[in-house]
Amino acid sequence: MAQAQHEHFKHCTMCGTSWRDLAEFVTDFQLRVEGYQACFPQPDLGLVMLTHRADGCGTTLAVAAAELRPLYDGPEFTEHRVGQDDCEKHCLQVKDIEECDVECDMAWIRTVMQYLRRHELPAHMK
Fold this sequence. Notes:
Layout: E1 10-11, E2 18-19, H1 22-26, E3 31-37, E4 47-52, E5 60-64, H2 65-68, H3 107-118
Antiparallel strand pairs: 1-2, 3-4, 4-5
């Protein structure tokens, strides 16, 4: 007899905490955004790193940018601006989690990280 699979958004392999959906994950004050490891050819494959600050834990979780895409509902830019004169170079520094104003195909993840850092859901998800 097969066991039933329990669906969840993320699971902490160190302490066993599970977040059943993206909304629960974003609003968890025990998660702290630490950085973003960009994947320049395919921004959706970049990784957002978060520390799980629960008592006795402290592990780092890596979440693929694509899994966080539902948090973004702003303009979609298709041009890759990294390294161009107008590039603010945020994506070149892993620990830089600031938002970016450049119309670049990677700008959306910078906006998403602000929701994660503030532990708030965007208006379209409330």
